[in-house]
Request: fold
Amino acid sequence: MLVTAPARAATRPLFDQLHDWITTVDHKRLGILYIGYALVFLVIGGIEATIMRIQLAIPHNHFVSPQVFNRMFTMHGTTMIFFVAMPVVFGFANYLAPLMVGARDMAFPRLNAFSFWMSALGGIILYFSFFGGSGLYGAGSAPDVGWFAYAPLTAQAFSPGHSTDYWTIGLLVSGVGSIGTALNIVATILCMRCPGMTLGRMPMFAWLNLVMAGLVLVVVSPLTAAQIMLMLDRYLGAHFFDTQAGGSAVIWMHFFWIFGHPEVYVLVIPAFAFLSEIVPVFSRKAIFGYSIMVAATLTIGFLSLGVWAHHMFTIGMTSYGNAFFVGSTMAISVPTGIKIFNWLGTMWGGKIIFKTPMLFCIGFLFQFLIAGLTGIMLAAAPFNWQLSGSYFVVAHFHYVIVGGILFALFGAFYYWFPKMMGKMLDETLGKWHFWLFVIGFHLTFDFMHIPGILGMPRRIYTYEPGRGWETLNIIVSIGVVFQAAAILIFVFNMIWSYFKGKAAGNDPWDAWTLEWATASPPPDYNFATIPAVRSRRPLWDLKHPEDPDWKYE
Amino acid sequence: MLCIGWAGMAMAAPGGDPAVPSIFSPASTPADSVYHLSLFVLEVCFLIFIVVFGLLAYSVVKFRRRPDDDGREPAQIYGSNQVELAWTVIPILIVVVLFLATARVIHAVEDFRFPPNTTEITAVGHQFWWEFQYPQQGFITANELHVPVSDVKTPTPTHITLLSADTDHSFWVPILAGKTDLIPNRTNSMWIDPHETGVYVGQCAQYCGTQHAKMLLRVIVQSREDFNRWLAEQQRPAENADNVAKGRQVFETTACVNCHTVAGTNAHGKFGPDLTHLMSRGTIAAGAALNSRENLRQWIKDPEVFKPGSLMPAMQLDDQDLNAVTDYLLSLH
Reply:
């Protein structure tokens, strides 16, 4: 099963290398393309966030105009969700899922390439709006309708010019890519497993990404449908969301959030997947309650399809409608709690090693706990009537996405970078990255809850002094400095380690899943011979022939 | 760090500065019901936090690999059905309790039965200001909502019908009630029964376009006598003083009348705020500026100074006309 890296071909001309990357159908290269693409947009989205935080640092600031501010929050939200978070989780799934199930590639390599380039095109179309958005003089460039683009603000009457169309088409195109990749991940995990790998022996990573991809298949479709309807409204005189002609603004909200809420799980389930691989390895114990973890994941996936209207508690639903969505939303905290408890159960009685990947996972557990609790507060509809649309909500979902998902992603970078690049990331720089980011994150997002409680709505480009918001806002903005410094260290670490880092070897973490059984980086064909497995931890069995897992499963 | 956050939240609790629109200093029944529910939810969440954080901190400290580690792998435990059952059932019970407590408050606020002496008001959201109609009295005003104070024993609540003329908006005065959206082509409603007189601030809480930030909202809660006096004043036709005839003539012959109404004149526009009793309001431009002579003049001259992106155009008047129109508006008590 173990293979060593083949000698790399002599350096090829740059043009040929570029040609290789553009025409590649290799899941590992496409995975890296996805991840690299997401990192570029992470920096762009981060710059947009920084512009907003400079503007809001003091009351009555004139750093940017209201028009620019509105574009910044629209582009920041759209970019971070569709062109950072989704591509990066697809990238890791692409790279790792075939390796973990012992396959030589994804089920449909050409579809894989097609999907990536569609997603990439979507991002490029969105950002082209900065140049092409002014269809009419003074109509503005980038979209400024907010990332959930509530109707009828997106109608021609309120959004003249082409900026909203770039938003619509960008998401439509990237949505096609997302569906293609989701299909591919489902097919790969179900059909490409190596001999012996029954569903019950798949790594947690494979299970969780299977559920994620299944959710993408179900939920991106309504969003795509809604984008087409919006285009019909804007150009062919349809009236789906055109309230002045009898259309419904509320229907758009339903279409958007039946996508938008499961989308949170599309992003956080891969984060769970990273945790479920990293926490056991650095606690030196098998995952606690494997089958319960799988069941909890399936339950989360199912329930997540029935909670969307908790984004709409303030639209004047009946008391019965509101109560239903309170119940379904609170119910989802049970399987989520089970997952947290099982990770704690995995750490319990282990020998925890505080390498950078594990530090980020512990950060995830702490922050995701708080994010879950503020989620329960928001699920209580009356409490939500106060908190919804305020900075409390902004703090809450950044706690999920940054404190949870991004922390888990950083953990994943430190954990799998050695596999992808063959070099270890530097531990010292990693710890600087971690601690600076923890400080910056908590300065920004802990203090961001309070202005919401004090009545500060989101999406305002400025505010009056004297409402008790000034001190909090300056603290929130200062946190950005620490986060930016941490990101710079991270980027430097990746570049430096790629050239000068310590060689990783096949299995630097003494881990148990199949990707560590091959070379770092793996050869094009992944495995010289297709492995056969007898348990969930094939490499544990190999390393501990006296005490293999298959005896107990 | 988090402790600081929680302490901050505690500081925001009742008895704070009235200028700070904190959801934790309620002065009306809907806000009060939400406040009590939120305290209960916060307590439950705090307990959960203590327990789970305690377990996390304990595991991280207790089960760290020691420097004198023997290098052997720890005992491999694959799971335990009893433990799984415990941490499934206990959260389910907590969820049931939270759900019931929440459903009760939803019902109390949303299905409230209004007494016959309820004041009826219709609020219409516009880009980027508020129109307030008093259908029982037959007049319209803007941006500053006057309502009567309500006694706890014999409540005289105010029922507000919420409509929108253009995009989505949301009515949010945290001290009085949670927010409810104003959605075009849909009728929503909410209610308040403020227990104390005073001025309560809030603002639009649903992104509605360029100047969403300056769509501010003031609710002026008055004693019954003051409120009735205010109603009577608002029902009068507009002042028509001779000394501002020039300004009135400029007003009525420019585009002002396309968007604004002044009762008893030929100004019947509906796109902008009703100006019949403009000077009874403390602010202009939906709270973006105080209602003073200089501000009013500046606003007519170039609204972009206070509210870039406001739908009111600069009127391009020469100084003489500008001063005359300003004087006319200043006469609209």
Q: What stands out?
A: DSSP finds eight helices and twelve strands in chain B.
